């Protein structure tokens, strides 16, 4: 199948109409009909049958459909990458981060960078780790800041510091909270796919502990909101805890401590610009200033 054959197949599959498929491809209806005939002739079997005025996929077309959908997504990624390579601006950075970093770290970083170089502008995006990596691969993002420490092909990982996991509850805790005391309380857990959630689960496994989990959430902020509502207690990263601390909530260190790395990821093949380095320096500096609420050096 040629690319044009794939396009007509996908268009008819989506619309169920040769006329609408032609409009989607910006060609005439006779041209679309000829293209479909050419596709089926090359393959040696029918792709669509007309049923009650609509073109319906044959069994062979249904088998092809998932692979064609994946190919169309890859083609869309290639087009997006080509566009992004043309429209990259000088003096401008597109920065992606996890929601925790976006709320708790980036505002201070942008302020610091802008004080040093007022001509730098930013586009800031918050996504989960998988979406950030994909945005970096397609050059929609110049740099991402994440707790993820996975090695991804074609991507360079730069450690810039660390934060820690902390315990959030509605009751005062005298000193650090021990992991072995957590099973006594209802717990709001982060899913294990989350980098912080994975680190916590590894620490619990090392202690042979199992928690009384009443809910598992994808987002750190939801976990904190559930604590505020009185649903239970949670463990999140310190950056999130500082941003979400409300009257009636307390934050405590956990024992043994669990450190969470903060990493920058960039394109491995692309040389880093001065703008990249300015932002990384600011991220490194600001990440070192993240302390527990109430610490004397906060």
From TrEMBL:
Natural source organism: Allopusillimonas soli
The keyword Transcription regulation appears for this protein: yes
UniProt entry keywords in alphabetical sequence: DNA-binding, Transcription, Transcription regulation
A GO biological-process term: positive regulation of gene expression
InterPro entries the record matches: LysR_HTH_N (IPR000847), LysR_subst-bd (IPR005119), WH-like_DNA-bd_sf (IPR036388), WH_DNA-bd_sf (IPR036390)
Protein name (Swiss-Prot/TrEMBL): LysR family transcriptional regulator
Family label: Belongs to the LysR transcriptional regulatory family.
Domain HTH lysR-type: 1-58
Molecular function per GO: DNA-binding transcription factor activity; sequence-specific DNA binding
Cited Gene3D superfamilies: Periplasmic binding protein-like II (3.40.190.10), Winged helix-like DNA-binding domain superfamily/Winged helix DNA-binding domain (1.10.10.10)
Pfam families xref list: HTH_1, LysR_substrate
């Amino acid at each position: 199948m040629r690319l044009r054959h794939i396009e007509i197949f996908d268009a008819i599959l989506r619309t169920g109409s040769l006329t609408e498929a032609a409009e989607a491809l910006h060609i005439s209806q006779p041209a679309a009909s000829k293209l479909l005939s050419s596709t089926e002739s090359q393959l040696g079997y029918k792709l669509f049958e007309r049923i009650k005025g609509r073109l319906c996929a044959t069994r062979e077309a249904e088998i092809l459909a998932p692979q064609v959908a994946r190919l169309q997504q890859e083609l869309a990624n290639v087009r997006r990458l080509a566009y992004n390579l043309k429209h990259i601006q000088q003096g401008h950075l597109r920065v992606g981060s996890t929601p925790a970093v976006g709320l708790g770290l980036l505002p201070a970083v942008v302020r610091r960078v802008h004080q040093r170089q007022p001509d730098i502008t930013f586009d800031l995006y918050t996504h989960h780790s998988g979406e950030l990596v994909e945005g970096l691969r397609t050059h929609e993002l110049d740099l991402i800041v994440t707790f993820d420490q996975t090695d991804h092909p074609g991507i360079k990982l730069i450690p810039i510091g660390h934060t820690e996991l902390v315990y959030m509850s509605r009751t005062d805790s005298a000193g650090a909270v021990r992991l072995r005391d957590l099973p006594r309380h209802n717990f709001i857990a982060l899913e294990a796919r989350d980098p912080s959630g994975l680190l916590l689960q590894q620490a619990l496994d090392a202690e042979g502990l199992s928690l009384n989990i009443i809910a598992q959430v994808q987002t750190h902020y939801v976990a904190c909101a559930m604590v505020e509502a009185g649903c239970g207690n949670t463990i999140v990263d310190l950056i999130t805890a500082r941003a979400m601390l409300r009257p009636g909530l307390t934050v405590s260190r956990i024992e043994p401590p669990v450190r969470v790395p903060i990493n920058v990821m960039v394109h491995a093949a692309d040389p880093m610009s001065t703008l990249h380095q300015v932002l990384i320096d600011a991220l490194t500096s600001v990440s070192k200033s993240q302390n527990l609420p109430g610490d004397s050096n906060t």
